[in-house]
Design brief:
5 helices, 83% helix
């Protein structure tokens, strides 16, 4: 990896971590486009790499929230279990997905989250 690409990767990771820290998640929504554009990763590699990067960022953010008293573990457990099952299913289906439709679905998810956050929270 070139020095420029290394700096871009560090900036992308920092931005994803910042978003995770502020909002408790969502860093992957920023990271996937940056991995695709800045690092020239193909769509499949960008999505997969984002998951690998976000896991430790989420763990770190969760630990900080827990230490500061902002995490209710008993409330989070059902979501964690459902999320784990969804992650397993998504990982298995991922290799069969058409990347054009996956990108479109990702864009719709980002749009939905933005509208929902801006107008209905």
């Amino acid at each position: 990896m070139t020095k420029k690409k290394s700096i871009q990767a560090a900036v992308a990771g920092g931005a994803a971590g910042l978003i995770n820290g502020f909002f408790g998640g969502g860093g992957g929504m920023l990271l996937v486009p940056l991995l695709s554009r800045w690092l020239d990763l193909g769509d499949r590699k960008a999505f997969a790499t984002s998951v690998a990067v976000i896991l430790p960022l989420c763990a770190l953010s969760s630990a900080i929230y827990l230490l500061r008293g902002g995490l209710e573990l008993s409330s989070a457990l059902p979501y964690l279990l459902g999320g784990a099952l969804g992650g397993i299913l998504g990982g298995k289906l991922f290799k069969h997905m058409n990347m054009l439709w996956l990108r479109r679905g990702f864009a719709l998810l980002i749009l939905y989250a933005g509208v929902r956050t801006a107008f209905f929270v």
